[in-house]
Amino acid sequence: MTDQNINNGFEDESIEKTEVDAAEAETNSTDNNNAGGEAAEVEVELSELDKALLKVAELEEQLARRNADMYNLQQEYNGYVRRSKQDLIMARENGINKVIETLLSVLDDAALAREHGDLTGPAGTIVDKLESTLTTNFKVQRFGEVGEEFDPNFHEALMSQPSAEVENEQIGQLIQPGYKAGDKVIRPARVGVVTPE
User: Fold this and answer.
1) Is domain 141-197 annotated with CATH 3.90.550.60?
2) What is the DSSP letter of 138?
């Protein structure tokens, strides 16, 4: 081989090496650009993921608030229904008590007529039926008899008289009988009380 061939061989190798280096540099540059692009894409995807997660958290918070509002509304409704039922029961009881109060004067007059023997025949039958209906259907009971122990929850003392014959306060005179429907006093018995000396 001649010197020229040797030089040409080196030149060819150096040209090839330069071309290979240029190709590698271009590949590296492309890889770097791709890596930079991928990093940007990953960053964009992360920011979109963060936005989506924030949106999910916001929606979960809204759902929790709506559920709490729904629960509170349900509790208010349940309270309203309960109060309405209680009000209905009270209104019914008050209506019945008003009717019974109205009939008490009739019962008082009937009791006085019975004491004097004036309540006979069909009128007596009607009064007996009225009394039994009130007792059976509405649990109306008459109370306040002479000799009963005085109880301010059931009796209204209109007068008082001391006596050595009694140990506790007792009813000495019944002025007007009392009536109760179930446990509720419709009218207290008006009485004269005998008290121990």
Assistant:
1) no
2) H
Determine the Cα–Cα distance for residues 180 and 141; give it in Å rounded to an integer. 5
Q: What is the pLDDT of residues 118-173, one digit of tens each?
A: 878 888 888 889 889 998 998 999 998 998 999 999 999 999 999 888 888 999 99
Please report where in the chains the tokens 């009607």 appear, as a residue: 126
- C-beta separation of 137 from 157 below 8 A: no
Exposed e or buried b for every residue in 62-78, given b needs 16+ CB within 10 A? eeeeeeeeeeeeeeeee
What residues pair up with 163 in beta bridges, in sequence order?
196
For 174, the enclosing helix (H) or strand (E) is strand 170-176
Task: Give me the amino acid identity at 131.
Answer: E
Q: Is 155 left (phi over 0), alpha (psi -120 to 50) or beta?
A: beta
The answer to whether the beta carbons of residues 94 and 183 sit under 8 Å apart is no
